[in-house]
Amino acid sequence: MVLGRLPVRRVLIKGPSMSPTLQHGDVVVVVGKRPKPGDVVLVTWDERPGQVSVKRAKEPSGHGWHVEGDNTFASTDSRTLGPARVHAVVMFRLWPRPGRL
């Protein structure tokens, strides 16, 4: 699991795929818990070992979740890569505009 043994982690957002919800350089807090549709989640894909992404959970799909970036023009997500493994849910942004998502 991406989170290791700690149930809460800070994650730095890189890239524009979650704009306008999250911007490149934002720092968020993720918690290892079950997602629900609409949650912003931390995911991996078997096709991209070592890559961790933040996307929006749409619906359970097979052995994973169908996830999509909020910025459809700048996101590689389940529309291309298929179901993702969800490892954690983004709870809130720490920086630069603290607040719950």
Automatic annotation (TrEMBL):
Transmembrane segments: none annotated. Residues 56-69 have a biased composition (Basic and acidic residues). Residues 52-78 are annotated as: Disordered. Keywords: Hydrolase, Membrane. CDD domains: S26_SPase_I. One of its GO terms (molecular function) is serine-type endopeptidase activity. Pfam families: Peptidase_S24. InterPro entries: LexA/Signal_pep-like_sf, Mito_IMP1_subunit, Peptidase_S24_S26A/B/C, Peptidase_S26. One of its GO terms (biological process) is signal peptide processing. Its main location: membrane. The keyword Hydrolase applies. The keyword Cytoplasm does not apply. It is found in: Endomembrane system. This is Peptidase S24-like.
